[in-house]
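Record 1 of the preview.
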Amino acid sequence: PQDTFTTPASLGDKAQHFIAFGGIAGWFSGVFERRYVWIVAVSIAGFGIVTEYLQWVLTDDRHGDIGDLLADLAGILAAVGAARLGLDQWSAWIERRFGLEYRRTR
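->
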């Protein structure tokens, strides 16, 4: 089937995986308490592993790719590393800015 989502030609598949999983991990690293960031990382990595496995097992037109999984993990590690360095408050700021309920204790 034809993909309806188009991306810039210069942005490769692995970069898309890195950005997507890094973005998810970065967001949730800022939502949960810092001591739970490792749970965020493992959960999102598990999601990446499951989706690549299911592509390999359940579809004929798509395939799981270890390179995609490695890009997912690299994005997660980069985001969690940035959060551990103190860059984890940006998602909380956005949630407060738009009036969303947000309570966090450190």
